Amino acid sequence: MTANPTLVEALRGSAVESAHRGAWAVVDADGDLVASAGDIDRPIFPRSAVKLLQALPLVDSGAAERYGLNAEQLAIACASHNGEPRHVAVAAAMLAAAGVDEAALECGAHWPYRDVVQREMAAAGQLPGALHNNCSGKHAGFVCLGCLLAGDNDKHAFLSGYVKPEHPVMREVSDAIEATTGWRLADAPRGTDGCSIPTYAVPLRQLALGFARTATGIGLREGRARAAKRLMAAVAEHPFMVGGSGRFDTRVMERLGERVFCKVGAEGVYCAAFPKSGLGVAVKMDDGGTRACEVVMAALIQRFVRLDAAEHGFVQAFADQPLVNWNGIEVGRLRWAA
Known about the structure:
Layout: E1 6-12, E2 15-28, E3 33-37, E4 43-44, H1 51-60, H2 63-66, H3 71-76, H4 85-97, H5 115-123, H6 136-150, H7 155-159, H8 168-181, E5 190-192, E6 198-200, E7 202-203, H9 204-216, H10 222-237, H11 248-256, E8 261-265, E9 269-274, E10 279-285, H12 290-304, H13 309-319, E11 320-324, E12 330-336
Antiparallel strand pairs: 1-2, 1-12, 2-3, 2-10, 4-7, 5-6, 8-9, 9-10, 11-12
Helix pairs in contact: 1-6, 1-8, 1-10, 4-6, 8-9, 9-10, 12-13
């Protein structure tokens, strides 16, 4: 197997200290490959990078309408958030709208990603709950979908085990991923994600196709196309919900609005939709490094999204960024090398 190319270099002074290999694909909604590097046909686990696709049934099913979910709540359904107070409040409100509470979530609990929030909670003697989990918004969306699917049955009993592959909620989610990417999940390697739902290995080429279809609605049935448009509009209106303070996804989407939807996944995965360009993007770093993956995504945004001079400079700061030590001294750079 041919090694993937070096996409990102970490410099110490003027010398390359580390190199990050990986692959990326840019595809249009017809499935034509626009550009790529590396092995884009090897199935990889996209992890949280596909939360937009996983949220499609929440809207397509009518659950979002049934429970009166607003744009902020739809945005957090696509999120890997910091667990900041606003994130917790919005996820909790989604559950309340469906008539359940935090106990319905099966994503597990962890401390918020944001250090200052951790310290504030610890100082107050508080422990994290499932709502602090970075996936609580996505899971709140799953729970709302499950409450709708439960019909006249006991919703709590129906929701039990909603993270399992065979549960009706996960079957809806898997169907949405399969329909958008065109990849048969029954034949794909399957694992368990950090938040306990199933994750399926899909090639970068197909992931990029899924995001191109989501960006344009081409190749999707009408309900899914409408759902995709509504979710991306919600994220463009409330990008803080998708990540939070200081996060790449939030900062880029705050600046570029509806031209870019981008979403990180664990182990060096990034997916994006460029609606104005009609393109989908998928990136995977061999070493699982998120910092390198952000550099690649920034470089691809520069290449495939129309930017003015100020926006180009803003994105360039992510594609070629200084490495600073604890004394504030610049010691090197992290840069796009492809």
